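Two proteins were folded this term; both appear here.
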Amino acid sequence: MATRTFDDKYPGQPFVQTDNSLESRKELSDKFLGIYNDTGSQRFWQISVIFGVLFGIGLLGYFWKIFVTKDPGDFGYYAALFSFLMTTSAGAPMVAIGPRIANAHWRRSISRVAEIWTLIGTVNLIVFLPLLWVMPSLDNGRRSLVFYWEAKGDWWFPFLIKFSGHIWTTVSIITLIVLGIALLWVSVMPDLALIRDNAPDGWRKKWASRLSRGWIGSSWQWNWQRHRMGTLGALYFMMLVLTHFFISTEFLMVHVPGWIDSLYPITHAHNALQGGVATVMLTMFVVSRIGPYRHYISLDQFHGLGKLLLALSLLWFWFWFCSFMIFWYGKKPSEQAILKLFVHGPYFPVFLAEFFFVFFIPWWTMVWNPVRRSVWGPAIIAISVLIGTFLDRVRMYVSTWDVAGISADKLAANGGQFSDEYPRNMMLNMTILDDPAFDRIMIIKNFEGLPVPTSAVLPTAIDGVIILGFVSGAVFLYMMASRLIPVINIWEQKELLLYNAEVQFHRVKVKVMGKPR
């Protein structure tokens, strides 16, 4: 315990006490290394096996969906699963990035918990790839925010133009994954050097030696890490918004005729922040109450993250109501059809459940201090938000892909002029508008009126297997990563000793936290 005294003001009394001695830092490192070197409890491996088996079963359903399912309209629940994973796992690292930029100390114990979720991007990419096959190219006349023209020249240039929507979305997702993994690597590098120098010989020490990249903790390396983490964090946030912009437009909005909402892409990105906070909240509850980190993840983390969850839940209502108000007061036939499809039509029960779980429950529970300043309260609310987020993705994507795959028979029943020679296709082929055999005015009228399905699409057994399997796969990959990467950021815990002090204030000692540079 280091001490400084000011005898002229408080004779014989310590003015500032800090616990930043070499012995304190070594003791802290030894505690975390002891937890890290533990092979894990039997319960941990039993749960890992269960999630691993479910993931394997989900992969079987995945390949069944790819090679057996031929109707693109049947990929609605699959697209909802992809969006849900991107909403939760891709948004989770923002819990580490945002408070770190704001110099918040309470996030130090959970920053690594959030950063490890970047590895789940590999699972998201696996789920995303079949959607590229389902999505039609731009030359079929479907709507898109990407400009399209009949390009001429070598084969590659027309290919780039026709599949520009596919390419931009794929590039954004891969870039987001690379930025996330790079952020995790830069963050974990000092801890890997600690494992390299102190862990017993074995595969973990060899793995840490390769990835620590000669880290010795020099001033230049610490400055390099600080700047790289700031840059990567900012780029990750921008790419997160851009990625959800492409997903919400190319895989959702453009497939519903008459759906014009400039606010929805950012709403989709906001949902990722809310789902990410809920994901980290639930993760740190499991890590602290079931795992060995109870003494390091305390009430401060749950309280700080609980306030963020409350704010984002209130913001959810603001985004939803702003979009709802435009369609409600517009009263155009297409706008009324949009409301019928997403709100008061066949998916009305899903909307009510979503509204209840993702907004009403967090609002009417987190406003109370006893609930917000607890451990169990925010964790239960996080489960509610995750359920509501999944229902939101089901409501939006399943209904959209059902409409986008409306068959000729369904459209004819709604007054259209299509026949069986124009089969079911993702986003009805607009080139038929130029066919003189059909009534152009009637077709355009159908597109403006949007034939709304009379019943909701229910998931098949394969859909249930894939959803359960890939959600389990994300949890399984996270659990395996926790055996390679320390779940608690060790170097940030040691850095906290520099900013943590006790100040003598008359007769009592007050804990004072310094602000990083």
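Next, the second protein.
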Amino acid sequence: MATRYVWGKYGIDAVTTASQTYDDDSSSTSGTYFKAIDFDLNDVYWSWNYDWSQFVIVLTNGPIVFTVGTSYSISNGKFVIGNPTTQSYPNGTTGEQGLGGGHGARLNVSSGRYTSGPLYIGINKSGQNQFDYLYKLGFTVNQNSYVLLYKTDSSTPEYWFAIEPYSYGSVITNRNSSRIEVGKGSLTGSASNASASAYPQDGGSGSNWYTYQGSDNIDATAVGYSNQSPMGGQSITINVTPATPTYGGTIQYTYQVQLSGGSWTTIATKTTATSQQYTIPAGTTSFAARVVANDTWGFSSSTYTTGSTLTVTNNQPPTAPGSISIGSVVGGQQCTITWTAATDPDGTVASYQLERQTDNGDTWTQIYSGSNLTYTDTINADWATVNYRVKATDDDGDSGPYATGTMQTVNDGWLYFSGPPSDMGEQPAPFNFVFSIGSTGATSASSIAVTVIYDDEVIYTGTVTSAQQITLPIDTRLTYAGDHDIIVTATASGFLAVTQQCDFTVPSVTLPNGGAAGIMEDDAGKPYYPATLARFVIGLKGLDANALFDRVYTGTYTGTGTSGSGNPCSVRTSFEPILVFIQAAAASTATSGYWVNSAPGQSSQGNMIVNNNGTVSLCPVTWDAEAMTLSWYGTSAAAQLNASGTVYGIIALGGMA
């Protein structure tokens, strides 16, 4: 992990650190002699004799170089004087006596002569035009003047700069003086580096002033991938988890990838994006990615953050078979398992592997491998449950996902129906419907639940033993002419259930040519009528009364409180309705609905219009021609005409086909 060192970056300005004016004259703005700002060198350069008769200044730690100019600039944190003149003195130089009465000494600072300021004075030993601070003298004089350095002979000697006109008596105006140093200006940005000594802790360098702020880390904390099992020839997204650096900044990343354990290759340089998409070349065996961070202030990390190495697959496996179907499961019998074909995106499905699981265990055992889409297995009577799953394998040997069936209970045997055939033909006279329910397996079924429905009406429910005969009388004399059905359903624990439908037709009565209906009388002259009188009443389109009555259904049902497409209401009729009316039976409930068949023969039948106490809603209607069932559902129980506990009356009318 690489450490980033951060500085605040500022401009460099000249900062005034002292400002004083000394004057021999009484006026502070004009005079004939100008003593400028105190100059304290702490006797680094000088020594002197303290003598009232003669005061001498001697340079004992020279040389000393004065540089004087009329302007300055700042470079690399130092002052550079413009238009410079220099005056240097070697070690041992004796200063000129001055300050009348011999009470001081002086040195010429510059060979130049000046009539106005500002003048900038720098002092050092090397003579290089580079200074940490300068002395600034401002003035205006009417003749050329000297720039001098004075030292007094007082018990606490003082140094100062002075402007002295060439001829005594000249007037100096606009007098001011100051000391200026290189200092920190306005903040311009930030700087960073991998080295703690790249910039000053608090100082100038180049054209900027730097103030150290601290250190942090910008290396990414993790590199991850959008897919842990990539395919050759497909794209993968490289994801970077950024660090949260203390000092912020714009962080960029350079992305590199490694293919099949080879060298690292750069795929993106200095981007702020925290994700990068890359297409892995086909044939690659492994893939890894790494990133290295940098910021826009100057820092570049030397530490890479590397993601895990992934194994690359270069073949797409087959899909799962579309479905799997398990036949009847009876102990000691054979069961046929079938499945639909799988597909291979980039090759051929070579084979299928069928596996079996018993007793809801954790182990699957392969029982078949081949190209067929079906297999017959023998069911062990000792199994409690059995299930199957199948997968496909392609020509590269890669397998796809499983298609898994639904777990089946192993039955002791199955039930079967013994009785009339499914088509009993015409039955013009009453007859007995005689049947029995048998069972297979080592043990016969001893408790078989049987239900018999005759034309949508339950005519028998009971519990019988295997092969027990049941006789049900069917009276056709009061039955309308046309088709009828009897449906028998039998169930028993541990056995496969059985359902048998037997159909028959009651024929219409046809009178011979010239025949007519008449009133029949008994011996006493009392009229009587055959039980099938209704067949002699002719209605619309030549249909007899029985046929007409066959197209009318009436009934009631009690609401369950459920609703929605998964809980529809339904009614089973012997004809396809063309009009249905439903009315809530409660006198206080103004709820009703009606539906008109707008698409005869179609499963989707539009909507039932429901008025629920003034709120109108639509319920989608479906017709199942095979089950002869009309269904509807709504968004709520009330809207579906299925409010809990409410009794509804229903009338369905059929067409005059």
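Confidence is low (pLDDT under 50) at residues 25-29, 48-53, 99-103. The first strand starts at residue 4 and ends at 19. These notes refer to the second protein only.
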